[in-house]
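thread: overnight batch results

M.L. [08:02]
morning all. the overnight job finished for the chain we discussed friday. pasting input first so we're all looking at the same thing
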Amino acid sequence: MADARGDIFARIREALMVKAPKPHFKSEATTGQPVVVGKPWLPDGGETTAASLAILAEQLAKLKAVLVRVPDEAGAAQAVAELARSKAWTRVAYHGDPLVRSVAQALPCPSWEADASFEKQKLEGCDAGITSCESIVAQLGSILVSSASSGGRALSILPHVHVVVARVDQVVPDLAAALDQVRERHEERMPSMLSFITGPSRTGDIERILVLGAHGPKELYLVLVG
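M.L. [08:03]
and the structure it wrote out:
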């Protein structure tokens, strides 16, 4: 038994040393280039930044999430401030990321940085939570957040509205690229929590009727700078 176990772990270690092709691809022995095999089970993520952004916008629209493109930090602050006014927000919690802080400073309502202390009732009483993120996956319209980029685990879940502020260079074509970004950014100190957010919280458990906001925010906004 001990020898069999050692063999299994040895094969796993060996496999991890060889970079695997992406899903639906296999390495061509003669050229070393990947070739498509079979029908892709994930949508295309785009070969260029412009293509990825176009796919992202399409996916977010399908998911009933709102994409707001702005040229710079000032534009992001103005966009979120206008959203707060239009929604009549009275209290907002935010993550202490530098970009998010600059946005929070322009809010027309009281706000507090939720990283320092966790207060469940206070977070539940907030109209919105503003966070950063690790990456944005174009092929799925998913936003990868972590305990390091989103003020812990609760800020992106408890308030009724979730606003993510990010930069264009955080948009990647697929899941593999998103995880690569996390590894490059954190190296050996990976966050304790990674979560992919794909649109507002939803469920269709009861009579197959889609309900938004059942287990988390009812609205999701992505403010993309650049």
